[in-house]
Amino acid sequence: MEEKCSCEPTEILIFPCSGGSNVGQIANQAGVKLTQDGMGKFFCLAGIGGHVSGMIESTKAGKVIVAIDGCPVACAKKTLEHAGFNIDEYVEITSMDIEKNPNLNPLTSDVEKVTQYLSTQISKRRGLL
Predict the structure, then answer these.
(1) Is residue 92 included in any domain, yes or no?
(2) DSSP string, 72-121
(3) CA-CA distance, 3 to 92, in Å (whole number)?
C-alpha cells in the first residue's frame, strides 16, 4: 500500500524552520498563527528535504512559497532551494533584532512581530495573485 501525503495544494504555502532555539520556535509558531489566520497553509519542510513525492508535487502546485528561518543558517531557504523551489517571501528572524538563544519557549511578542510582518507581506502579494 502506497503512503499518500495529506497535503492538498493551496495558493500560499508556509514553510517555517522549527529549529532547536527560540528563533526556530518563533518561526514555527508564526507559521501556525499565519495558517490559523487564513494567510496560507503550513507545509512540511521535512517532507521537502526528504523528497516525499506527494509533498513535492503539492508544493509545485502552490503559487506563493513563504519561508521563515530563525537564523542565518537558513535551513528552510536551503531546503527549498535544494529541492528546486523559488521562495517568494522570506524572513530570517535574527535580522528582525531578535537574538537567538537556546530557550524553546519564545516570547509571545516576538512571535507576534514576525507574524505581523509576514501577514503584511502576504497581504500585499495576495493583491498580485
Answers:
(1) yes
(2) TT-HHHHHHHHTTPPPSEEEEGGGGT----S-SS--HHHHHHHHHHHHHH
(3) 33
Q: Please indicate, yes or no, if residue 29 is contained in any of the structural domains.
A: yes
Note down the domain range covering 115.
12-123
CA 39 to chain CA centroid, nearest Å? 12
Per the structure, how many domains does the chain have? 1
Give dist(CA 129, CA 117) in Å, integer.
19
Domain membership flag for residue 20: yes
Instruction: Give pLDDT, residue 9.
Output: 44
CA distance 6 to 87: 22
Residue 89 lies in a domain: yes
Interval 51-89: pLDDT, tens: 999 999 999 999 999 999 999 999 999 999 999 999 999
Instruction: Provide the residue count of the chain.
Output: 129
- Specify the pTM: 0.89
Q: Which of 9-23, 83-97, 106-120 has the lowest mean pLDDT?
A: 9-23
Q: Tell me, what's the pLDDT at 8?
A: 47
Amino acid type, 114: V
